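Exercise 7.
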Amino acid sequence: MIKISSTGLQHPIVLLLVVLFVKIYAFQVVVFENISFFHVLLVEFPMWAFVLSVLTLLFKKRTWLAIWLYSLILSVLFIVVVYYTRYFSTVPSYYDVKQIYQSNSVGGTVALLGSPYDFLFFLDTILIVPVMWFFKKRATSFVSAKRWAVSFGCIGLIMTVIAFRYPLIDVSYFAKKHGYIQSQFVQAYENSLGTAFASQEYMSEKELEKLKGNKYVPAAEHSTFGLAKDRHVFIIQWESLQEFTINQKINGQEITPNLNAFLKESAYFDNVYQQIGAGNTSDAEWLMHTSLYPEGMDPTVNTLEGEEIPSLVRTLKKNGYGAATYHADDITYWSRDKLYPALGFDYIYTSNEIPNEKEIGFGPADEVLFKFVDEQLPKQLKTHEKMYSNIITLTSHTPFEMPEEYEFLDLPENFKETYVGNYFQSVRYTDEQIGLFIKQLKKLGIYDESVILIYGDHSGLHGAPVTEKDKTILKEVLGHEYTMQDRFVVPVLFTVPGLFTGEKYSNLGGQVDLMPTLLNLLGIEHDTQMIGHNLFHYKKNLLGMRYYLPGGSFISDKTFYTAPSAKLPASIYDRKTMKKTKNTNRLQESIDNTLAIMEYSDYIRKEQTEDR
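Solution. The predicted structure, written as tokens, is:
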């Protein structure tokens, strides 16, 4: 039997530290599946304990209030980290905390992420109240807290110094191995240097293509160069569209009947992977308009401070185009008030201009967006001979809940009121609106004079909202288990009337390749270096992905490699079958080449954002 001495009752810091350790241990188990008592005690716990000890020394008159607030803040933080990890499969950084005001992007999904057990993280904030009363009735002292502060401070400092000696390639894996607080210190330090990864050596296009396994050929010598010269350009970035929905039927009904019809006048790429970072949709816009990798843990827009960026927009404008962008959301969302001027758009239309009508989710329905575009085009064409229109859809955004009048699919009973079923309904709705928009382009007489690029910005079906029932439905639809291939591949259509007649390309690509492919069709060369390449010409590729895959992962023509993460070991998959393999042939070489490409992309981005 454990006895608490009168001396122990006078020094409640010991009891508080024990309670804090239990809380930290629970956090490690839930987020990292780490059950090592000594690892938590020596690596994760000391920094949190140091903060608690210091608080008791700083707030001598309101010690208990400071302790309670600290406990409450930790509870909220841990719940945020748990929910964030369940949805994005990576732990949030202090960058993401800065973006908490933008949480409406997944606000409707939060209810799908939680468990009643999560709120046990708040249990100590309740139990501490009678403990406060108990100790206030006695002559308690926090004098010993000074010794604890020094002890934990020294241990925490040693662990932090050790952490700085290791490369931060994947934040979740790093946080598990070296402590969550230490991972934030290292990220902040690396961010203060400009970028987490940044090569300092110039790399030629020939060297870049060699890393991907290709022989470099100048863009002007490609067979597709200039085939769509001087056409209007429409880019439709489709919210949460995944490739497996194309030509897919449910109960004999096509999920994307209009998109399927466009395939007859399109070149279709069915092996293009998302490559976004923490900025999600805004990172997809960055990839589309710069052909550079996103920052990763921080939305790329946060690295912009008003400078002009070499971009698709500026290159098109130099070649006689007017440029407009449309997104029916607050322009400050993901700092697009910085992004769009940096890219160089002439016309910027957001929620300030686009009517907030027929609201679905957190913005006007896509039919309102496309109607607005229809209204602007004739005015713009009076000023510009050629127009580039960048259109960002919104309706097919998580949690995909559609009003009944906009549910165009007659789903089987077991699909109804499921996350996947709602997703299919939202995709079908946006497909209908794009079909109507194409009809308007034909009425305007510019459809046959246009290039229309349609692509998905990122996956919609991932994380905790996808339940076991949803996975069963997906298996029924796909004919196999839902894989990372199904999740990460987005459809890409280059619709060029009179040029393409339904050609299908299955060579590997990423969103970083969309800009150079489009410019090649238009017969335009970009002023500055791009990381991507022309998908029509190059057959081999090597892709990296930050944020949604552990750092060090790569996708090549034959291999899908996921580096070790906080919860899972490294895995090698055959990319065609998505079956695990033990083939490690040239694995390290591919890892090194992928990191080299991404580091060089960071170098270009840093040069462009700091030297202008």
